[in-house]
Design brief:
The protein is globular. It contains twelve helices and 21 strands. 29% of the residues lie in helices and 24% in strands. Strand 6, helix 4 and strand 7 form a beta-alpha-beta unit. Strands 4, 14, 15, 16, 17, 18, 19, 20 and 21 form a nine-stranded mixed beta sheet that branches. With 431 residues, the protein is α/β, with parallel strands linked by helices.
């Protein structure tokens, strides 16, 4: 099994967190998002404990809400000692509705509108990750009007290529996020920020990409960031107190993916940071990380019902399911790899080579190609693993399909966390 919370019971059914996947589909329907809360909590603790052990006091992880955002998740994050990264007023609203403390929110985004900024300030959001000069000026202005000193981190781009997928590589110089160090623009950005009276500039933020399996790319980013921080100390007298290194540790989508040693990576990163600071006689800053995918991805499974099997003689066979790109667009976007399992026939031989296709009127609506399954029949149950990140949050109503329900599992029990959309929901905003 790809993860240790998955198993096979005496009926030959897939189990998730000890619960029969077939039972879940019968009770809650399919398609169905399933999220193992116990695994989410364990992943949170891995980060919280490693940062507390290896990094300076005050270091902690922020959950990246773009990976998964719904009200019922935020009490879990709060209880586990996480902060939260939010990228829109909608994510802020959801976090607050879930009882998450506003002061532990970090507001991202490369194009915050005036309304966004005011909404965040009016709701007491603790920190802004400032992306550009225009935002810097507006945050300073509105903080002054409200009589507050807004805590900010400045997003800079170190120019690192971690050899990740281009669509999720955010550390390179030519990128819509942040201000590049190499061109000299970041130095002017910092100079402007530290001169603004309504801002408390804590330090820098960078994000070099996603699906990174080792510490080395982060260490490379630290070298660039520390050199830049030291330069700003010499030129401006500004000392970084907080360094947010973003997210990016990878997860296993298939058996061929490596197992990531997150505590080991954080320890190696800590040792590299401390050595770099010692070499420059620079105070070691607090460190923030922004895991999203590596908190929730492997806790998620999506269940589908088979509609039928179609074989194009001389070409290939398709298994069609009652979901697809509306609940998981990642294969259509960038051919994301997934492990697909016959949830109700786990002990059957898998000698049928096929492509799993969705129900949308798009030739690109595929879940995975050229996989091995038992030869399927209508109403068989199929499980797609590692779907806890960027599936629910990227889902849509294309073809006027309703979004699936989401259930959370804890201690061998399941509860509905997000109800399935209805046809009435589809027209609720129509006039």
């Amino acid at each position: 099994m790809l993860y240790d919370n998955l198993g096979i019971n005496e009926k030959g059914h897939l189990t998730i967190g000890g619960i029969d996947a077939v039972t879940l589909a019968e009770e809650f329907g399919a398609p169905l998002y399933v999220l193992d809360e116990d695994r989410v909590r364990a992943n949170c603790r891995t980060y919280v404990q490693a940062l507390a052990e290896y990094m300076p006091a005050g270091s902690y992880p922020l959950f990246a809400g773009k990976a998964l955002c719904f009200k019922g998740l935020y009490p879990v994050l709060k209880e586990e000692g996480m902060g939260a990264d939010v990228v829109s007023p909608g994510e802020i609203y959801t976090a607050l509705a879930g009882g998450f403390p506003a002061e532990r929110l970090y507001f991202h985004g490369n194009n915050k509108t005036d309304e966004d900024i005011l909404y965040a300030m009016d709701n007491g959001v603790g920190h802004f990750i400032v992306d550009n000069h225009h935002e810097l000026e507006r945050v300073n202005r509105y903080a002054g009007e409200k009589g507050i000193k807004q805590k900010v981190l400045l997003r800079v781009t170190p120019g690192i290529d971690p050899h990740t997928l281009q669509a999720i590589n955010t550390g390179r110089i030519d990128c819509q996020f942040g201000v590049p160090i190499e061109t000299g623009q970041a130095a002017r950005f910092v100079q402007a920020a530290v001169g603004m009276e309504n801002l408390d500039v804590l330090g820098f933020h960078s994000h070099i990409g996603s699906q990174i399996f080792e510490a080395e790319p982060f260490c490379d980013a630290v070298d660039i960031l520390l050199a830049f921080a030291d330069e700003m100390r010499q030129v401006l007298g500004f000392t970084v107190r907080v360094l947010n290194l973003g997210g990016g540790f990878g997860v296993r989508y298939q058996e061929t993916d490596p197992v990531v040693d997150i505590p080991g990576n954080i320890k190696a990163l800590s040792e590299h940071l401390k050595a770099g600071c010692a070499a420059r006689n620079y105070p070691v800053p607090q460190v923030l990380l922004e895991p999203g995918r590596s908190i929730v991805a492997d806790a998620g499974v999506t269940l589908y019902r088979v509609g039928g099997v179609k074989t194009i003689e001389g070409y290939r066979s398709y298994i069609t399911v009652n979901g697809g790109m509306t609940d998981n667009p990642r294969y259509a976007l960038y051919q994301a790899p997934y492990t697909v399992l016959p949830a109700d026939r786990m002990n059957d031989q898998r000698n049928f080579v096929c492509t799993v296709a969705g129900r949308c009127c798009e030739s690109g609506d595929l879940i995975q190609e050229n996989i091995r399954m038992p030869e399927a029949k209508r109403d068989d149950l199929i499980a797609v693993l590692t779907t806890g990140a960027y599936n629910f949050t990227m889902s849509s109503n294309y073809n006027r399909l309703c979004r699936p329900a989401l259930v959370m599992l804890r201690g061998g029990k399941a509860r509905l966390a997000v109800r399935r959309q209805t046809f009435e929901d589809l027209v609720a905003c129509d006039l």
